[in-house]
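[User] At your convenience, examine this fold.
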Amino acid sequence: MAVAEMSQRKRNAVKWILYSILLFVAFIFQTTVDLFQIFGVKPIWILPVIMYIAVFEGEWAGAIFGVVGGLFWDTAANKLLGFNAIILLVLTVCAALLSMYLIKANFWNSLLIVLAAALIQGLADYVFCYLIWGHSSTHLILIKKILPTVAYTTIAAVPLFFLVRKISRAFRPE
C-alpha cells in the first residue's frame, strides 16, 4: 500500500513510529563507543533529530521528543536525570515557534537552529557541570571537548535534515 492510499490516521501513526525509531537509532549511535569518533570527539545524534522534528512538526511534537530525547541523553551521559530533558524541552519548543512564526524551515535555517541549540546545550553543560565547581583549567574542557562536539554535531546533522524532512513531507495531510 502506498503512502498516498493510507488513511490519515494510519499515516500519522506510521510517521510517529518512524520518528521514534529514528530517535532510538540516534540514541544507539550516540551511546556506541568509538562509533563516528574523531580525535576523541563524537557528535550528539539526538539533538539534531529532535530539533528537526520540532522544526517540521511543531511545538507539541518538539516538546515531547525533546523531553524523551533529553531523558535518553541523560541516561547515556550519566548526568543528573532531567538536566538535558529540561534544556531540550525549551530548545525544541523555541525552534518550533521560530519555524512557525519567524523563519522558513529550510536547510540553512534548520542547520543554524541545530548549531545554536548545540552551543546553548554545550555551554549549559559547561557552566553547570564544570565552571561553577571552580576547578582549574576548565577552559580546556570548553576548547577541546565542548566546542569541537558542537561543530561535529552540526556537520553530522546535515543528512538528518533531509531524512526528517522526507518523513515529514511523505506523511503530510493531503
Q: What stands out?
A: DSSP finds six helices and no strands in the chain. The domain at 7-26+37-170 is CATH 1.10.1760.20 (Arp2/3 complex 21 kDa subunit ARPC3).
